[in-house]
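Fill-in record for glucan endo-1,3-beta-D-glucosidase.
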Amino acid sequence: MGSRPRSGRGEAAAALFVLAAAVVVSWSAAGVGAIGANWGTQASHPLPPDTVVKMLKDNGFQKVKLFDAEDGTMSALRKSGLEVMVGIPNELLTTMANSMKAADKWVEKNVSNYLNKGCNVRYVAVGNEPFLSTYNGSFLLTTFPALKNIQSALVKAGLGNQIKVTVPQNADVYDTATGKPSDGDFRTDIHDRILEIVKFLSDTGGVFTVNIYPFISLYIDPNFPAEYAFFDGRSQPVVDGSATYTNMFDANHDTLIWALKKNGYGNLPIVIGEIGWPTDGDMNANAQLAQRFNQGFMTHIATGQGTPMRPGPIDAYLFSLIDEDDKSIQPGNFERHWGIYTYDGIPKYQLNFGVPNSQIKRASGVKYLDKKWCVLKPTVSLDDPKLPDTVSYACARADCTSLGYRTSCGMLDTRSNISYAYNSFYQKNDQDDVACGFSGYATTTGQDPSTGTCRFGIMIEVDSAYSWKPRRVRSNYLLVLLLALVHLCVSSS
C-alpha cells in the first residue's frame, strides 16, 4: 500500500529543507549534541523492535528514549550503538520509593542485564512528568525517594559513574509572570520538591530533563502568537534585557535556566526530553506544520549556538518516532499523532536527521493484512436510529481521532465518516469477519476508500506486529460476544 498523500510544502519549506541539509553537514564539527527520538509502544500493532532499530540507524539517530524497559525493545537495542535513556513508569514510583530491594531488582533486571548484553544504557529516567499540574500532586511524595533509591541501586551495581539518573519534567513546573525568561521560577506549589531533586541531580552528576511543547501553548491559548512557535523569525520578538527571543523554545528553555540560576543551580546540564509537533487530531496539527517545526528546530540547534542564556550544544529527543493508536486522548485527539512516522513506518513528511544528502527512510520489511476494508453498506439509510450507536461502539474501541474539524479526514461526508469508524475497528481486530458486522450495517470491500489526505489504513500482519508483544485481544469468541452484546443493546433501544 502506498504512503499517505501529502500536499506540496511550498518554496519556503523547500528552502528550509535545503538550509537544514547544508547546516547538518557540519553537525559534528559544530559540537552539537546528537539528536534522539522518543520510542513509545502504546500501539495496538507496534512495529517489530528490530525494524524500528534499523529505521533509527538508517536515519542517523544516535540515541533513543524509552518510557519502559520492555524486553523486546531493550533486546533489539543490543549492539546497535544507540545510546539509551530507559524509563521507569509513574505507576512504579511508589514501589521504588518504598523498597530499596525493589530498586535493586529493577536495576539488575533492566540495566545491568542489558548492559552485559551490549545495550548502551546511559540514563535512567525516574518517572515521566510526575509533577505535571493535572496529576494533582499524585507523585509528589514518591518521586524523590524513588530517584534516590534508583541512584543507590546504580552505585551498588557499580554503575554510578557510567549511568546517570534524571526525572523528565513538563515545562509547567516553572513559569514567568511577565512572559520574560528572566522572571522565571519554579511553581510555588512544588518549589521545595523540585529543588530537592535539582540539588540531588547536581550532587550526583545527573541532568535536568524537560519536555517543551510550543504546540500545546497554541492548542490551549487561542491568543498565543502562532508564528512564535516556529523558528523562521516571522514573529514579534520578546526583548528581555540584552536578550532577544524570536521563538518560544529559546524563551521557554531560558525561563528554566533563570529558575535554576535563581536557586543556585545555573550550571546544571539540561536535556530536552520531548519536543515535537503532531500531524492530526486538531486544526493546527498537520504534516506541513510538523515538518516546519521539526526541521526548524533541528536546523536551529544544528548551529551549536544554543540559547541566549545557555550557549552551546543542545541535547534533544524528538517526540515522537511513531504514531501510537492506544494512547490516551484525554489531553486531545492529537495525542495519537505525534509520530514522524505512521503506525506502519511510513514517513509523513521529509526531514533530514543528520545524514548528509539523504532523505528520510521508511521502515523495511513491513507486512500487511489483505487489501480489504470495512465500510457502511450503500443500502443502509442514514436515518436509521440504531446507526449512531454502532459508530460510537467502533470509535470507543478503535481510533477515530482523524475525524473532526480541519483534520486529515475532516472533509469526509457522513457515510464515509461511518465507514472510517467501521474500518478502524475492523483493522484493529485483524480483519476478523465478525469485526465488520455492526448489526448488518457493514460490509467488506476490495476498493480502497482513501481520499485526499484521509487514509483508510490496512493493519500490519499479526505475526509481524506481535512476535514480541502479547496481543490485547486474540479470541474471536470474545469478539463475537462483544459484538453480540452491542447488537442486543442496539436492538432493544
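KEY FINDING: The chain has a mean pLDDT of 89.
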